[in-house]
């Protein structure tokens, strides 16, 4: 995708704008995000050896769930998103939490052109499957992180299991997410993500699955990346 165009799907922006005012409701449409947020936070914190004092960028921050959580751990956090509605909710929630996060309307590509090699850690969670050119986002994240820094992605694998669980199960049967939240064709295989990393200075360090426990209704991290997964990459020094 040309650098002169924003890597944005207006339909996706509108979709999440509709639920922006319910972003911080732990029992609402964003409940799964609330439930996996502690897992994501701990994975990032442990992967980079502790967030305290680090300069962190959260790409596609939405209403600020992970951004605030990382700020709570002592990180200096910048959150970027292309949704005015999501950023408005994120900024409003800071009045309640008392935390400090620098929220900006920007894409990863836009920021990579102006402040490359800036952040100790870059996170991009549940965002790659919602943009027209996910490879462009990966490339931008690689430019934004400092040499030796850490980049974390979370996304959905393009497998029959992911279709069954993330779309049929979560959206239609259990109604954990609004119908139409995900487009199976946009799910990202780990091999594709790894290829985009190889085109940059990023080196894939680890893949970790996020697993939903049907009986307990809880999530855990573990081997197996057939559905949801986290990827930890390190930029070559």
From TrEMBL:
Annotated protein name in UniProt: Ubiquinone biosynthesis O-methyltransferase
Single GO biological process annotation from the record: methylation
GO MF terms held by the record: 2-polyprenyl-6-hydroxyphenol methylase activity; 3-demethylubiquinol 3-O-methyltransferase activity; polyprenyldihydroxybenzoate methyltransferase activity
Similarity remark: Belongs to the methyltransferase superfamily. UbiG/COQ3 family.
Keyword Methyltransferase among record annotations: yes
Function: O-methyltransferase that catalyzes the 2 O-methylation steps in the ubiquinone biosynthetic pathway.
Catalytic activity, reaction form: a 3-demethylubiquinol + S-adenosyl-L-methionine = a ubiquinol + S-adenosyl-L-homocysteine + H(+); a 3-(all-trans-polyprenyl)benzene-1,2-diol + S-adenosyl-L-methionine = a 2-methoxy-6-(all-trans-polyprenyl)phenol + S-adenosyl-L-homocysteine + H(+)
Pathway(s) served: Cofactor biosynthesis; ubiquinone biosynthesis
Keywords per UniProt: Methyltransferase, S-adenosyl-L-methionine, Transferase, Ubiquinone, Ubiquinone biosynthesis
Source taxon at top rank: Bacteria
Binding site for S-adenosyl-L-methionine: 40, 60, 81, 125
SUPFAM superfamilies in UniProt: S-adenosyl-L-methionine-dependent methyltransferases
Keyword S-adenosyl-L-methionine: yes
EC number: 2.1.1.222, 2.1.1.64
């Amino acid at each position: 995708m040309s650098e002169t165009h924003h890597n944005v799907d207006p339909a996706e922006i509108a979709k999440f704008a509709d639920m922006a005012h319910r972003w911080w409701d732990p029992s609402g449409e964003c409940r799964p995000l609330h439930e996996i947020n502690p897992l994501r936070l701990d994975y990032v914190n442990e992967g980079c050896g502790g967030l305290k004092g680090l300069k962190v960028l959260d790409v596609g921050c939405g209403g600020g769930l992970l951004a605030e959580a990382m700020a709570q751990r002592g990180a200096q956090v910048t959150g970027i998103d292309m949704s005015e509605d999501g950023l408005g909710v994120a900024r409003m929630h800071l009045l309640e939490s008392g935390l400090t996060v620098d929220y900006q309307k920007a894409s990863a590509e836009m920021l990579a052109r102006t402040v490359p090699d800036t952040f100790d850690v870059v996170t991009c969670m549940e965002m790659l499957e919602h943009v027209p050119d996910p490879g462009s986002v990966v490339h931008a994240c690689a430019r934004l992180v400092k040499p030796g820094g850490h980049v974390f992605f979370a996304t959905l694998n393009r497998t029959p299991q992911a279709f069954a669980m993330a779309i049929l199960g979560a959206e239609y049967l259990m109604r954990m997410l609004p119908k139409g939240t995900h487009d199976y064709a946009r799910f990202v295989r780990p091999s594709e993500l790894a290829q985009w990393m190889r085109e940059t200075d990023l080196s894939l360090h680890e893949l970790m699955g996020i697993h939903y426990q049907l009986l307990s209704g809880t999530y855990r991290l573990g081997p197996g990346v057939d559905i949801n997964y986290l990827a930890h990459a390190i930029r070559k020094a």
